[in-house]
Amino acid sequence: MMRKRLLTFLCFAVCVLAISTALAQDSTQPPAGQQVVLTVKGDGVQIYVCKQMDGAAKWVFQAPEAKLLDATGKEVGSHGAGPFWKSVDGSLVKGQVVGKSDAPAAGDIAWLLLKASAHEGDGVFSKVEYIRRLETHGGVAPAGGCDAEHVNATVRVPYTATYAFYGVKN
Fold first, then answer.
1. CA 129 to CA 27: how far, in whole Å?
2. Facing residues of 162 across strands?
3. 135 dihedral zone (left: phi>0; alpha: psi -120 to 50; beta)
4. Residue 39: pLDDT above 80?
5. Mean pLDDT within 110-138
6. CA-wise closest residue to 153 among 19, 37, 50
7. Residue 10 is inside which H or E element, if any?
8. What are phi and psi of 21, to 5 degrees?
9. By the number of CB atoms within 10 A of the CB, which of 52, 88, 143, 155 ranks highest?
């Protein structure tokens, strides 16, 4: 009986440690005090260009291009190079990557935390301080097709992601 309790306790301790370690390694969590302002789905493409680098041709990320959709599937904005997110209300936020974690599944682009670097307009994005990209599907550059004969070629890889926008609650 004592051995069973000890084994149960050890299993519990290992699980708690594993979960704590996983959470500690997720560098896409916004700082304490940040509250979700808006959550949308990004549906679009990640654009890559075949470039000659370090003596080899490689796919290099160029830009995202996506629609931002609300929970009902209505288009509420766009996402593009910069990177920027623009709302249909005219407000815009640009971001700079401050944290990155591998996506749980191979073939999915990384989860990101971005800090707002610029704003335009007075709408929903005007007070956003952090942007989190998570729940990604697809978007990774192809494994092949980029060689000396295809330098400057572009590919558009479909992806979806959840974008959560954070700010300090007033």
1. 16
2. 41, 134
3. left
4. yes
5. 97
6. 50
7. helix 2-25
8. -65, -45
9. 155
Question: How far is Cα 115 from Cα 131, in angstroms, rounded to an integer?
Answer: 6
Cα torsion angle, 96, 126, 71, 62, sign: negative
Token reading at 112: 């990101």
- Whose structure tokens read 């990384």? 110
pTM of the model: 0.83
d(CA 120, CA 82): 14
Backbone phi, psi, residue 16, to 5°: -60, -45
Q: What would the two tokens of residue 22 be?
A: 């996983």
- pLDDT band for position 3 (50/70/90)? low
Residue for token pair 């493409």: 45
Q: Per the structure block, which two tokens stand in for 78?
A: 């766009």
